[in-house]
Amino acid sequence: MHLIDTHCHLHVAAFDADRLAVMQRSATAGVTDIVVPAIHAAGWAKLLALCANIQRPTLHSALGLHPLFLSQHQTVDLAALAQAVRQQPPIAIGEIGLDFFNPNCDFSRQQELFVAQLAIAQDADLPVLLHVRRAHDAVLLTLRQFPQITGIVHAFNGSSQQAAQYLARGFKLGFGGMLTFARATKLRRLAAELPLDAIVLETDAPDMTGAAHRGERNSPEYLPEVLATLAALRHTDAATLAAATSANARAVLQLP
Fold it and tell me: What domains are there in the chain, each with its CATH number?
């Protein structure tokens, strides 16, 4: 099987001690491609260097400013992002979006950064990797300003109605470790009922670890466990789902 992890922060310090070993185990597990989204501008150089140097699995860079790291973003980072995209085009703009979970967060600043990065993505004809928490309606409203943009809604946790709106725009929905928890009944039901061409797989490693590794660092080598859960929920064999979700990822991210 060939699997694509569409969201894995492989460049962060949590993997510094054993990154190559993680990559080897991931390749053995069938993970052929990993999309590595940025968090803040300070990490772009390390991320780009990593994606340029590791060949198995193939690493694909995404550059952006995460909505939860506002204190680490500077106004000049937006100009730097536009320049970086021109000089060394990533596979996507991300991780970007809106997160309304913390009521003390500066929602206005989040929105400004989100809109600015969507504009950069549209100008560069790149897909986006969306971080959305308790903000799907606001994100969908904002996306109306950018009708050409598609991408992936990372760790989708919205309603079936919201899912339908994203799908109508050409977005794919990412499912990861949370799907492996039996208590995630709403998420599991949605994953079982969505059209197959709507779904991509992810880990969000080192975060959002699945049920079998609760309390541990998450890793892209665990992606087959997400696949196995999805196969059980949809009563479909894993090989069929691996091929379909990988094809979905390649299509929306324009992967070779």
Answer: 3-253 (3.20.20.140)
